[in-house]
What does this fold into?
Amino acid sequence: MRKIVLPLTALAVSITLSACSSLQRQDISTPGTISPAETLLPVSEEDLQALSTPSEPAIPGEFTRDSLYTLLSAEIAGQRNQFDLALQNYVSEAKRSRDLGVVIRALRISQFLKKEQELLEMAELWSELDPSASEPHHLASIALIRNRDYEGAVAHMEQLLNLEGSTNFDNLALHAKNLSEEDREQLLTLYGDLRARYPDNLEITFGHAILQELNERHAEALATLDQLLKEDPEHQPALLMRARLVHQVEGLDAALAYLKKVSRQHPDNHQLGTTYARLLIDKQELDLAQEEFRSLMERFPDTPGLKLSYALVALENKQTDLARQQLQELLKERQHTDEAHFYLARLADQEQKTDEALKHYQQIRSGTHFFTALGRSAYLLATNDRLSEALNLFERAQDRFPDQAPQIQLLQINLLMELEEYEAALNAANDALVKQPDDSQLLYIRASIYDKLNDIASMEQDLRKILDKEPDNAIALNALGYILADRTNRYQEAYTLIEKALALKPDNPAIMDSMGWVEYRLGNLDKALDWLRLAYERFADPEIASHLGEVLWVSGQRDEAMSIWLKSLSENPDNPLITGTMSRLGAQTSNASE
It folds into this structure.
């Protein structure tokens, strides 16, 4: 009885190429796949005719009619984006045929689909079929880490050690930063045992030090690194990590002394020099930091980040011409362009060169400075009688970044509120809430607008909508409680809301201020003073100063009230909260002691 016998090499050409051509359109970029530039070789007519013959059990390297049908079905499923079906067929055939090529192919598809169980099964089968292979142990250990099976992961890495291959013990330790405290402790114990069994393995030693640091055993980690560096004084990651630990254990000065020494011993390692320069900034040794960055920049001209750091320290040192020169060079080199535009814009802004500042702000396309630049650009336009241009700027930004539209809308609304364009701000908030009716930030800012428009009912409605969804939102609780205490006579209701907010955020000075204010409204002057003094100690802003001064004034402690008001006015001249309170109470310097 005739059977189809395709050697592995022939099947690998026909099967693997077709799957890669389809799956790689979905951006599979795993090791061991075939280039998508290669083409599918057709199955021969003889092979197709053989599909009608009965099948026989497969042996490794040989494929029956059913085997070939299963694999071809898998490839067709892959071409139709039915990847789960493709994987199911490959795994099934890998277990049945135990052919190494099919096993590896099944493993690659499971990698792409992030199917951990199938990946583990195929990795185990691969290592069984080829005991000399190291890759399945690597892949299995990573999958087991993600499944929190640390003992299993360590077992696979020990097999790598037995194969005399490289391991990823240090990578496993680094993964632990995302784990719970209990999991980190478990890993730390495993690494302690491993290190006892393999005292000469530096990867295990380094991994042990990483875990000790992650578990905040800084002195132990430092001792472990010292032992490692005795064996390998050139271990660059250990040198950097030791600097961090010295900072934790012995302080900033000790870390600076250590980094100065090792950065000179290893002049080709710019990371050591960069870390040294950054710690000099922490010590406020800005001149020394600038000189260090200058030296690093000249020694490593192909590392543009050093030029940016040099420019920023020059800015801190008020050397604006030097900073401007370095930032302009970054623009010419097309390196760190967003950052260079941002700081050039700030320089122009500070010098009141509005057009130049706008030119640079509007060149910032992405990154951490984008929203700051957008908001500042709009503010400069609006305050120079170009409000329509500012609003167009927000509109274009929303078109360009639709996923970030809520943040852009909040920027626009905040700008309009700052300009006291409350009706325009309300219209913008209403438009935004049409698309996102339950967005808490938008509801909160609209409530703030209603407050400015003295529409207390609408403000309360928005804040209660937030609290219906987020009953423990301390900010909304406090805002509603304060408004009820300040603008209505619903004092007991206000007290209940503020009390709950304070229980959620007991150290928040704004909530302490609200509690003091509602106690004042309830007539409890002593309790009010206790809360307001505490709030003022934490955060002496004009609103808290105005409240504390008022309660002191009403309590007869007028000299202290006047002292607090005048101090706040010296820091915030003509602040309407202070001047309004003093005017309402008839408080003047001359009658403070009366």
